[in-house]
Amino acid sequence: MELAAIVGERGVRSDALARSAYESDGFMLQREAPSIVVLPRSTEEAAAAVKVLRREGLVVVPRGAGTGLTGGARPIAGGAVLGTARMKRILEINPDDRFARVEAGVVNVHLTAATCSHGLFYAPDPSSQTACTIGGNVGNNSGGPHCFKYGSTNRHVLGLTLVDSDGEITRVGGIEPDPDGIDLLGPLVGSEGMMGLVTEVTVKLEPSPERVETLLVMFESLDACCDAVSDMIAARLEPSAIEILDRLTIEAVEASVLRAGYPEHAEAVMLVEVEGGPHEVDAIATDIIELARARGAFEARRTADDEERKKLWAGRKGAFGAMGRIAPDLYVADVVVPRTRLREIVGVASRACAARGLKLSNVFHAGDGNLHPNISYDRRDADEVARVLAAGKEIMEACVAFGGSLTGEHGVGLEKQGEMCLVFGDDDLAAMSDLRAAFDPHGFWNPGKLFPVRGCREIEARPLGSEAR
Amino acid sequence: MTEAAPHARPFPTDAASLVDHARSLDCIHCGLCLTTCPTYQLTGSETSSPRGRIHLMRAVAEEREEPTVEFAEEMDFCLVCRHCESVCPAGVEFGAMMEFTRGKLEETGTRGPLARLVRWIGFRRILPSRAGLKLAVGGLALAQRLGLTRLAPLVAGLRGEVTAALPPVPPRRERRPLPAVTPARGASRGRALVLEGCVMPELFGRVNHAEARLLAAAGFETMSVPKHVCCGALHAHNGELEQARELARSTIERFDAVDDSCPVVLDSAGCGAHMREYGRLLANDPAWAARAEAFGRRVVDMSEVLAAPESLERLASRLRETTSLRGPITWDAPCHLCHGQQVRSQPLALLDALPGVERVALEGAESCCGSAGIYSVLRPSDSLEVLEPKLEALRRSGARTLVTANPGCHQQWQVGVRRAGLDVEVVHLAEALDRALEG
Ligand SMILES: Cc1cc2nc3c(=O)[nH]c(=O)nc-3n(C[C@H](O)[C@H](O)[C@H](O)COP(=O)(O)OP(=O)(O)OC[C@H]3O[C@@H](n4cnc5c(N)ncnc54)[C@H](O)[C@@H]3O)c2cc1C
Ligand code: SF4
Ligand code: SF4
Question: What residue's CA is closest to ligand 2, atom 3?
Fold first, then answer.
């Protein structure tokens, strides 16, 4: 076969069984297998494969590790999945100019591991960082706990290599923070695989802080915990990460291999990271704890020990998976509200789920006002699936009404296509669509995502959950 | 796991189910296990990842996919290293699920007739029989003496190359069984039963002897179990579940006949991981379930016993600097020790008690070496590919002695080191400590 000649025998999978493993990413509400899976080993192989796929009339869905939570990395109706899992070389680390150039399939955490001996690290740290790829991070403009201080992926990408729908290789940006001409990186980062396949990424590296301390602060009420976050920000105490886990999440994590030593009797815990010079860290940590106590925190622990810190974070990062102990599937919503309204949106989510008999747990990147209301369900129960979608929609609507947004970091994909109309009008969407067409005039890359399937006016009349299977 | 679950979850009992569907539902599809998986690392294919395999099993159980030859191939490609279990926040019992599926594939005969014949000879005639083992190992020794193994690559390709790179079968004096009792040195702290195992006495008898001496030095009266041959681990990992159950029952009987309450101490990680789970294996057998569960709880790895504070204290006082171990040394954790039994810190604590020996870290020490029981025999090419990055890491580490604690891994490393032309000695943890033990 022509493709096998390009990417090698192991790089093409077309039997039904193999393809079925690609029928979803981390978003399980809907599934659809590709008609072929192609796994190139280099930019050149990817470009050559694209030419063949295009000629054969297939559309293409880029895929990293398939940890996305919005259905972005699987097709809507056949076509090829073009995966970067074999493109995992770190091409260059430049400690003096503080950048690294990597292939798109490099796993996020491997980059940081490779740079730490230079006293540097890659800042965006999605909770899926032990699996997700830098290419996927670019696709979704992913964030993570430490993006509160450092910013999301778009603040760290300096340059990209892109394979377009003609199989041409284009380089965008470079190694300098502000390249000449119109900034094309802006639209590409977060384009959810709809403008081409990213094959190489040049990213900025950050110097490792002199001292890092992690604080574990325990509360008897989730509301109090939310309020403490607002207080911290108002007092200009700027840690590098502020995360909240609620009781159900704590229980699930503590029952798992990632047990982190979170107190199971707390209604909520706040995980805070403070970095800087030793005095600075000490002063900020002391102030944060004082402030939290004023809001009713009943205990606070500080640690600078690397092993212990790792454990605390591993628990947080495994929270999604740990919910597998509660039910077979989990819907992870990803909404943003102004931080002062965190406790209100938690209330909305609780009521939306309680009214529908659904089990809700909450984790948030609280510093950014980014809330993940997680709803447990079983995909085999069609009625429950419909209720989950309805609850999700109610939560998103409330967020928009509070002046927030639909997605903090997971992207739109299939999950929030319809809800785009809560924020944008048909004109806005048409403008975005034009921008996309400038990169992909043929609708070759990841078609049918992000934009609502029909015009917004029509969508308003569509019954909820009608697409779920 | 160090603390056994209160009650093992039984396998499904209905004849129709090819897959342990209930266990497959534990997976929430988060993907955090992908990068740990040696076959995903090798191929980049999600079908060959833990999440992919669980998906396939579930899809077959729900009749969305057929249990085709491709399905069996994907299940066989897995090394059952259980690295995926160590990172899975949802607590998916991957090893158990895979054992069950392989068992059913075996029953339904998805494999070809020749493969089945070879397996029958191996699992029914060689492993569970001392005479069978002696015959097989004797054959290998003879072939090595006559120089026939050097010809193996010509007739058997890669499998032959591996055979040619096997270390020589040890002399007979190293293959003698353990004495019935090895008395404790100093005041006795109680008894310990040791498992000599099936291939261990034939190829690594010196390790069993070292283990007994170490346990004695730590204050244990060490008992061997006469006539016992095989615990059934290889059978279970490869889907021979009925035979594995029989071997489990006879193992329990023979061990209990010597002592039915003292710890059962192992120097083979693969056997330990399996024997700890006898409770699950026999959970559907009312006459045996409780007894098997109780037996499983007595199973410990040698390093756990030796690294306990009182043992370590006694042992340390008897360890001397030795020229028979070349530094720096490094530790490669057998999968079924770190992932299968969650034993991680104890071997390191023991190695660090060796006077005057520098220990260096091995990158990816918890990743599979590709041995995986009989995988290296069934799939030599995949097996060596899995070992490749580990050999690179060994080269980078600068170690001159590599320490492991499982016969399969031991042999795999010996073959790999030899083929790569590295000047590194491969030893078992027990040997490393024993060499430093004063007379
Ligand atoms: C347990 C868990 C925790 C998570 N935590 C976070 C979190 O804290 N923050 C966060 O932001 N996200 C989080 N996510 C979501 C997800 O991990 C991120 O979106 C991640 O960046 C996806 O990377 P991936 O390699 O898996 O990409 P995929 O899921 O494979 O793809 C994601 C999108 O990017 C596109 N894409 C992938 N590779 C390329 C490429 N090379 N070129 C062009 N387009 C491409 C795909 O088409 C798709 O639209 C989490 C997910 C899980 C399962
Ligand atoms: S880590 Fe566990 S829950 Fe997550 S995909 Fe892997 S097996 Fe499934
Ligand atoms: S047991 Fe090992 S080889 Fe098998 S799926 Fe898990 S990690 Fe991969």
Answer: B27
